[in-house]
Amino acid sequence: MAFELLTSVKERLIELLFPVKCVVCEKETEQKRKNKFICTSCLKNLSPSLNFYCPLCEARTADAKLCFSCRALRSLGEGGQDHFYLDRLLYPFPYQDFKIQKVVKAFKYRFIKELEIPLGRLMVSYLEKIKNKIDLNDSTLVPVPLHKRKFNSRGYNQSELIAQQLSKFLNFRVANNCLIKNKATKDQASLKNEQRTKNIKGVFKCAEPEQMREKRILLVDDVYTTGTTMNECARVLKDEGAKEVIGLTIARG
Ligand SMILES: [Zn+2]
Ligand SMILES: [Zn+2]
Questions:
Q1: Domain 49-252 carries which CATH code?
Q2: 74 C-alpha to center of ligand 2: Å?
Q3: What pTM value is reported for the model?
């Protein structure tokens, strides 16, 4: 009893000294809530879009695959472009939406690991809504890995946390150590297109090839920008015999 009282006094003191603010609107939120880093009204305003777009040119598509003209260009090898290995791309938010941008940035750069819970819930509700359009049965979740050095400095891999949340609610297996990033790379955002492909080529290895054979893979990352990273991961997984690789991110930049 005395211990409980002490704990609640301590909690109250922490609340007073360090009020928790919503990462979107920056208003104080109540400490006790599970989603204490996003307030209820901001969470309500984050509603996933159920439209699908071509992973390359962003044209609307019915199946989240490459559109007809991108498929034709890729098969001709136009512009020295690499083959595209990602079968589909799924994401519920445009990164231009400042609300989701704030949440993702806080999750990645402000080290608010607890955001895995509301973000995980948003992704689960998105997948629940689209699963009658896109076949996701028996998927294996593979998070895009971080290099060991980056993992150690951040303390967690944000893509892995999302994958774990998804597996909790959707009954998919997480193949956590399947992909390994064995070389530290420059930040893709700072590079031009051709440099991006070069920067990322050959940096991923598959450590569990037998787990990938004939499997449908849901490749999980936080944000999709040019797709070079995801495409390279998909190439490695397909090399090991994956049947289908579907990219899944929180947002597209
Ligand atoms: Zn808010
Ligand atoms: Zn296209």
A1: 3.40.50.2020
A2: 10
A3: 0.90
